[in-house]
Amino acid sequence: MTLEKLEAQVLWWNRAAILAPIFFTGLLMVAWFLALCEIQTLFFIACGLYFLTAVIWWWWTMKSVHLLVKTLTSTRESVVEV
Fold first, then answer.
1. Residue 1 pLDDT level (bands cut at 50, 70, 90)
2. What residues have CB less than 8 Å from 67, skipping those under 6 apart?
3. Rounded distance, CA 44 to CA 71, Å?
């Protein structure tokens, strides 16, 4: 993964952080208003979506931090050589 790819992923996460809660809250509200599910079921679905997002985001964050540490270490070594 390159720094440009990392920057594109950060932009994607920013968009997802704005749009996903709006979309899923609207979807769950429609399901509740149409009496497709009980509120307790919708609560557990929302908790599951939150948990899934948190796990994926945490994994991505650790991967990105690792890339940045590798890049900074490489840069520091190059500067020391010069």
1. low
2. 1, 3, 6
3. 40
**DSSP state letters, 52-68:** HHHHHHHHHHHHHHHHH
CA–CA distance, 6 with 68 (Å, rounded to integer): 9
Structural contact between residues 42 and 28, judged by C-beta atoms closer than 8 angstroms: yes
pLDDT top residue among 46 and 74 = 46
Long-range (24+ apart) CB contacts under 8 A made by 3-7 are 3/67, 3/71, 6/64, 6/67, 6/68
Cα(68)–Cα(60) distance, integer angstroms? 12
24-56: pLDDT as tens digits: 889 989 999 999 989 999 999 989 988 998 899
How far apart CA 57 and CA 17 sit, in angstroms, is 10
